[in-house]
Amino acid sequence: MDKATSGWINGFVGVLIFSGSLPATRVAVMDFSPVFLTVTRATLAGLLGLALLMVFREKRPSRDDLVSLVVVALGVVVGFPLLTALALEHVTSAHSIVFIGLLPLATAIFAVLRGGERPRPAFWLFSCLGSALVAGFAISQGLSASPVGDLLMLAAVIVCGLGYAEGAKLSRRLGGWQVICWALVLSLPVMLGLSIVTFPPTLHDVSAAAWTGLAYVSLFSMLIGFIFWYRGLAQGGIAAVGQLQLLQPFFGLALAAGLLHEKVSPAMVVVTLGVVLCVAGAKRFAG
């Protein structure tokens, strides 16, 4: 298997795992505060990441890598989880998932700014078309319904795109799973302290579904998904493989409908299918 194909396969597995993040977060914030959920998922994943680094006796990153690791931590360990958790207090996971269609464009932009990649002009046409479909859908639904939720999701997409591109660039030197583990460990002291401070006064009213959501975002969304995702981005190219995120709304909407019984409108399905079609064109002209 060539490197590019391996990158697309790893990226696809990562997208499948990430597709469950927003529905799981939506369930968890029904019983946990967004801040507690964010810091606790990072704490649990950080402890697992620390164990992995110790078991495999990984070499510590250099000082030059620390700035990049901080950017990764702020983007995907703290920024995206917190902003999406706050957004899901105002909007449904089905509505918020559509915003994930903007992630490929954000990732591609930061791939140019931080990763030094130069996709062809036709690539930007397909990437922008997919993003325009998503933005148009959000506007058609009436941003006045929850401007706070939509703005939080937009901010989450921006910081996540930066974290993806920075982590993928660093993965070329440190390795995919090592990058997310070191970013989690770097965040661990602060996240652990905040977990203790924000710990709920009682856990009696926390449902099994909320615990399941917390477990999923801690183990899969915060750690396992990134192992595949960063490896895929590093192998197949940040901008190119990043377009696989256009598939994430499709999987996420299916989960939101099947597990949370949220209403998925025909417009959501049409937009999602339209964005999925853009991935083929973007992939073809990525390099």
Unreliable residue runs: none
Mean pLDDT: 90
In helices, the fraction of residues equals over 70%
Q: Supply the number of structural domains.
A: 1
Number of helices: 13
Q: Find the structural class using helix and strand composition.
A: mainly alpha
Order of helices and strands: HHHHHHHHHHHHH
| DSSP summary, beta strand count | 0
Summarize the structure.
With 287 residues, the protein is mostly helical. Helices cover 79% and strands 0% of the residues. It has 13 helices and no strands.
Question: What is the topological layout?
Answer:
Elements: H1 3-18, H2 21-28, H3 34-55, H4 63-87, H5 93-99, H6 103-115, H7 121-140, H8 147-174, H9 176-197, H10 208-236, H11 238-242, H12 248-259, H13 266-284
Note down, in words, how this protein is organized.
By secondary structure, the chain is mainly alpha-helical. It has one domain. It is 79% helix and 0% strand. The chain is globular, with a radius of gyration of 18 Å. The model has no long low-confidence stretch (mean pLDDT 90).
Features:
mainly alpha; 13 helices; 287 residues; 79% helix
